[in-house]
Design goal:
By secondary structure, the chain is of the alpha+beta class. The protein has helices spanning about 5-20, 25-30, 40-55, 90-100, 105-115, 115-125, 145-150, 160-170, and strands at about 25, 60-65, 65-70, 105, 130-135, 140-145, 170-175, 195. The protein folds into 2 domains: about 5-70, Winged helix-like DNA-binding domain superfamily/Winged helix DNA-binding domain (Arc Repressor Mutant, subunit A, Orthogonal Bundle), CATH 1.10.10.10; about 75-195, Orthogonal Bundle (Arc Repressor Mutant, subunit A). The chain contains 8 helices and 8 strands. The radius of gyration is 18 Å and the shape is elongated.
Length: about 220
């Protein structure tokens, strides 16, 4: 019979699996109807260790101050053929920013579009269009070969992708985002977000039909 901690670990695993996006410890506790987040914090760490020690295609990955149950990077290409490519304008904008400024730190993308960046990076990684690599306390983001193939770009070189976005889609750099400069391991000059063509603010993409984007912006990360 599972212990109380084991049962909580299973519940946390179920919440992360069902959410499909990174969650803060406080958000997991709220989903489980718990006022005290500390047992959930211990359960998350136990789950991290469990997946780290078992042979599995899945892993528990920390994304900023949130956690996600996701495929290991090396297994992402395996599911491309069965992964639907659906992008809202918000997702398309995040992808355009990554493509234009790559390699770009996730912390800088968060400064550009807010905390929704965590969810969008997770989604873009899941459909094989963005590659993530640990970089200090954050992630470094680049587009994948599948991105170039999907959009009909002849090269995977960042400068060629940037030229494609400028010439074919009318994307152009704008004024750098305002705000305090980052410090610590991510201390780099912020990149300027590109300006999309006039219209609905999104960049058109071949074979992608943007769905309605009526979701409210993600709330600021909660302390865990």
């Amino acid at each position: 019979m599972p212990s109380k901690l084991d049962d909580l670990v299973f519940q946390v695993e179920a919440v992360l699996f069902a959410s499909g996006k990174p969650l803060a410890v406080k958000e997991i506790a709220d989903a489980l109807g718990l006022d005290d987040y500390r047992p959930v914090q211990r359960a998350v760490r136990t789950l991290e260790q469990t997946y780290g020690n078992r042979q599995s295609a899945l892993e528990v990955r920390r994304v900023g101050d949130r956690y996600a149950l996701q495929l290991q990077e090396k297994y992402v290409p395996t599911v491309h053929s069965v992964t639907p490519v659906e992008m809202t304008p918000r997702t398309l904008r995040a992808l355009t920013l990554v493509a234009y400024h790559q390699p770009i730190l996730q912390s800088h993308l968060v400064r550009m579009i807010g905390d929704v960046a965590y969810e969008e990076v997770q989604h873009l990684r899941g459909i094989g269009l963005v590659h993530t690599e640990p970089k200090g306390s954050t992630l470094e983001l680049t587009t994948t070969r599948r991105f170039a193939e999907y959009f009909g770009i002849a090269s995977t070189r960042p400068e060629e992708i940037r030229k494609f976005l400028e010439q074919k889609l009318g994307v152009a750099p704008s004024v750098p985002p305002s705000g305090p400069s980052p410090s610590g391991p991510d201390a780099e000059a912020p990149s300027a977000p590109p300006t999309a063509p006039a219209g609905d603010g999104s960049v058109p993409a071949p074979a992608v039909e943007a769905t309605s984007d009526e979701e409210p912006p993600a709330e600021p990360p909660m302390a865990s």
